[in-house]
Amino acid sequence: MGLSVEQLATYERDGFLVVENFATPEECEALKQRAEELVAAFDPQGMISIFTTKEQTRASDDYFLESGDKVRFFFEEDAFAPDGSLRQSKERSINKIGHALHDLDPVFDRFSRKPELATIAEQIGYRQPLLLQSMYIFKQPNIGGEVTCHQDATFLYTEPMTVTGFWFALEDATLENGCLWAIPGGHKTGLKKRFARAETGGTKMEVLDDSPWPDERLVPLEVKAGTLVLLHGLLPHMSYANRSPKSRHAYAVHVVDGTARYPAENWLRREMRPCGFGTEPGAVATGLA
Predict the structure, then answer these.
(1) How far apart, in whole angstroms, are the C-alpha atoms of residue 248 and residue 285?
(2) Is 71 helix (H, G, I), strand (E, B) or coil?
(3) Coarse DSSP helix, strand, coil percentages of the chain, rounded to the nearest 5 percent
């Protein structure tokens, strides 16, 4: 299944594309079930890391920075009581699992390397598409945190810019449970920030353009389970907090081109080199510094 001429034109115009019925109900359920199994087996003792986009340096502990080629678990900001205990069960406290599910877990590996994804990557201009990062996002009921407006190229920077997000709704995403929002055409502006490792340790956020986002142009992307949302690396997008009683599970992979330079100061590092669609997990791929 490839994209039509009209879909490609829409993606070029808007910087995002909604592709309905990309994943079957069975595929969505298999990913959800596998994520639940991984969380059930996770022992958080001594490995508490909270995911937030409000102050990136707060998320830059070693557990986070060393997760590029591992499967690790990150908690919601509002998961903990003042005394440090969980307000609810572990299973209802995890924000996301990242960042190498596509390499290290067979269920996510199979889905991430569907031939249809390789076809789309080729259609949107990739010469050597490499699977760099994957995330399972829970957007938990009542405490699912806001993801502030950002561009994926801020965090996965290449020269030239090549990152694309493939975001899959595993449950219906609505206004109530924290669907994606995006600024149509916003990808045609430049990169505003760059998140990188600091020379002295930890991370830094370099501001390239401090002008505010035109929030009035944000549009909601309410989609059904099974939908693929294609996100250009420069597209400004976000999601509001989930205060509803319903979760909003999603799975995302980020792809870069192996012909581009991947700077060493990027936060995400991998001992296993990124590999392309249809190749074995961990296979060596050329083109990244």
Answers:
(1) 34
(2) strand
(3) 25, 25, 50
Is residue 180 within a helix (H) or strand (E), and if so which, with residue range? Answer: strand 180-182
Instruction: Report the distance separating Cα 191 and Cα 14, nearest Å.
Output: 16
Within 8 A by CB and 6+ apart from 230, the residues are 11, 16, 17, 19, 120, 124, 164, 165, 166, 167
Q: Is 244 helix (H, G, I), strand (E, B) or coil?
A: coil
Q: Tell me if residue 265 falls in helix, strand or coil.
A: coil
Closest C-alpha to 147, from 216, 54, 252, 249: 54
Its sign, for the CA torsion 11, 164, 170, 275, is positive
Measured CA to CA in angstroms, residue 234 lies from 31, 164, 177, 281 at distances of 28, 9, 25, 27
SS3 category, 268: coil
Q: What is the pTM of this model?
A: 0.93
Cβ neighbour number for residue 286 with a 10 Å cutoff: 9
- pLDDT, one tens digit for every residue, the chain (289 residues): 799 999 999 999 999 999 999 999 999 999 999 999 999 999 887 566 555 555 544 445 788 999 999 999 999 988 888 888 888 999 999 999 999 999 999 999 999 999 999 999 999 999 999 999 999 999 999 999 999 999 999 999 999 999 999 999 999 999 999 999 999 999 999 999 999 999 888 899 999 999 999 999 999 999 999 999 999 999 999 999 999 999 999 999 999 999 999 999 999 998 877 888 878 787 765 444 3
For the chain, domain boundaries: 5-276
118 DSSP assignment: H
Number of alpha helices (DSSP H) and beta strands (DSSP E) in the chain: 6, 14
State which CATH number among 2.60.120.620, 3.60.10.10, 3.40.190.10, 3.20.20.210 fits the domain covering 5-276. Answer: 2.60.120.620
